[in-house]
Amino acid sequence: MDKRTLILDATLELMKEDKNDIVSVNDISKRAGIAKGGIYYYFKSKEEILDALVDRIYHDIIVNCNQVISNSNENALDKLNLLFHTYYSFSSASVIDTYLHAPNNAAVHQKSLAKILLELTPLLTAIIEAGINEHLFNCDYPKEYAEIILSAFTFLLDPGIFKWSQEEIYIKIAAISSLIENSLNIKKGSIILK
């Protein structure tokens, strides 16, 4: 295993132990079995380590979403629901989310949201375009709608940004579902967000 991967794995292990926002370079160095100076050979700062870890974790989530959708023989509407379900099931299991929600990690959290938006937009755009071709959706701006839908889904429902009650979350999910249905001109109740 290369040392970059070893450092990232050690960081992730420390986060799993509930150290979250207090993981230090010293902690990472000890866990990885690499001198602190060796850590700085691969990464300039703790923030750079976190950026690389966020990149890796969200890259894996997005790869999983792409694989699930590409292996599906369903129509575009079913793939749309499958995408949201798949993304949520992988991202809600992410250890790094707790860390990202710590106040002093706002910059890394912002980068993670941007990464999700930028990397999932092509997949969601392709699903919307397929739905247009299948005569299931009617939409003049597939890419822009994809960006808006993902922005609402990832930002508004992010528990690190907003502390909604369970009832408020259900209402927001219903509103996002309705927004998607109205935007794509599909029947009410077609979008099932959980």
From TrEMBL:
Entry keyword annotation includes DNA-binding: yes
Residue spans binding DNA: 24-43
Q: Give an example GO molecular function.
A: DNA binding
Q: Carries keyword Cell membrane?
A: no
Source species, domain of life:
Bacteria
Task: Name the InterPro entries on file.
Answer: Homeodomain-like_sf, HTH-type_Tx_Regulator, HTH_TetR, TetR/AcrR_C
Keywords on record: DNA-binding
Instruction: Write down the Pfam families for this protein, in alphabetical order.
Output: TetR_C_39, TetR_N
PROSITE patterns per UniProt: HTH_TETR_2 (PS50977)
The HTH tetR-type domain sits at: 1-61
The protein, known as: DNA-binding transcriptional regulator, AcrR family
Q: What is the lineage of its organism?
A: Bacteria, Bacillati, Bacillota, Clostridia, Lachnospirales
